[in-house]
Amino acid sequence: MSDNYTLPPTRRAVLGGAGKTLSAAGIALMLGGRATSSFAATAQETAEETSQDVQILNAAIALEHEGIAAYQIAATSGLLQPAVVDIGVTFQGHHKGHRDALVKAVEKLGGAPVEAKTLDHYAAALNAAALTNQTDVLRLALRLERGAANAYLGLIPSLGADFHQIAGQMAGDEAYHAAILAQALGLPIPKNPLIFG
Q1: In the chain, count of helices (H) and strands (E)?
Q2: What is the dihedral angle through the alpha carbons of 125, 128, 129, 133, rounded to the nearest 10 degrees?
Q3: What is the distance between the alpha carbons of residues 169 and 140, in angstroms, rounded to a whole number?
Q4: What domains can be seen in the chain, in order of their start residue?
Q5: Residue 16 has what DSSP assignment?
Q6: What is the pTM for the complete model shown?
Q7: How far apart are CA 103 and CA 112, in angstroms?
Q8: What contacts 11, CB < 8 A, 6 or more positions away?
Q9: Would you give per-residue pLDDT tens digits along the chain (197 residues)?
Q10: 32: which DSSP letter?
């Protein structure tokens, strides 16, 4: 694995783009409110926007499924020390909470949340067979967590003010995970500010 921690393209493309395309009506519905008359669209436009919002949120759910699976694969790999497994299981629980919040949003929009794929599917997609030691696993986790933090931060400017808090909380969780993983890898503290976003 490379030490070049660029954002995974799937998270950047899906979640980074998601914030730009969420409609005002969709955001209002996700928050349990109603769009104001200034944001009201025709019934057909609203249905199309809602459908698009459901697709975007389902893509985010799919990514959370991937994160949950990645920690499950790592925990059962036999490559990690018990204390590291405990941390990973805790992080997995955070991802489950993120997934549940996103599922709730899709359901409020009248959509059906996307289902998780098999662990074998995720293992192949993450190239888990190439992981040979704890350092490999931690580097993969760090790359995924950094990508997730940046993706959720990318959502905030495009969302209604009522949704800023949850997106910020998710980004904060991911950044926290990344900081713990970087410390476990013995990486230096970044010298430059504004590490994420």
Answers
A1: 8, 0
A2: 160
A3: 22
A4: 9-184 (1.20.1260.10)
A5: I
A6: 0.73
A7: 8
A8: 63, 144, 147, 148, 150, 151
A9: 333 333 333 333 434 444 433 333 333 344 444 444 444 445 666 666 667 667 767 777 888 999 999 999 999 999 999 999 999 999 999 999 999 998 998 898 799 999 999 999 999 999 999 999 999 999 999 999 999 888 878 777 765 555 677 778 888 999 999 999 999 999 999 999 999 88
A10: T
Contact present, 181 and 142 (Cβ < 8 Å): yes
Q: Read out DSSP for 62-103?
A: HHHHHHHHHHHHHHTSS-S-HHHHHHHHHHHHHHHHHHHHHH
Cα–Cα dist 40/42, whole Å = 7
